[in-house]
Amino acid sequence: MTVLRNLPDLQKLDNQAVTAEEVSCAMTEGEEIAAPPAELLSAENGSPRPTTGHTCGEVTTESENDLLNFSMEETNKIREQLGMKPLPRDKFSPFLSPVEPYGNRKKKNNVLNAILLLLKDLDAEGLEVVQRTAENRIHQLQRKEIQQDR
């Protein structure tokens, strides 16, 4: 499932043809594998460097501070270029932005538009697969939401 989720265009797996149904099921049940953060890649050969024990999905205080420092430095550079005084660290809070950054909204919107355009090309059988996949995904999200509320 994980392989098909991360490689949905795969035609054969273990010398067997991959069906649309299998891909649909994998998209809802398979695990998504994220690429390692760029700082984990070695500049010399692109091979992963050992991590400090954090998983890729974990947000640590250390990484939050790094992001804050980077954002603060960038903001202050721009402020200085505009002839403004730099902001002190205690006045700077990039976390006041909306819950979902613009990039995520834009990506989701692009994905939705692509899906809607692709739906026009599907026949009844393909649309049924999409419908089942969407229903499975909705149920999966609802279960996750219920678990988070507990």
UniProtKB/TrEMBL annotation:
Domain of life of the source: Eukaryota
Keyword annotations: Leucine-rich repeat, Repeat
GO cellular component, one term: U4/U6 x U5 tri-snRNP complex
Keyword Repeat carried by entry: yes
BP GO annotations: cytoskeleton organization; mRNA splicing, via spliceosome
UniProt cross-references to InterPro entries, sorted A to Z: HIND
PANTHER family: CILIA- AND FLAGELLA-ASSOCIATED PROTEIN 410-RELATED (PTHR18849:SF0), LEUCINE RICH REPEAT PROTEIN (PTHR18849)
Protein name: Uncharacterized protein
Annotated organism of origin: Eleutherodactylus coqui (Puerto Rican coqui)
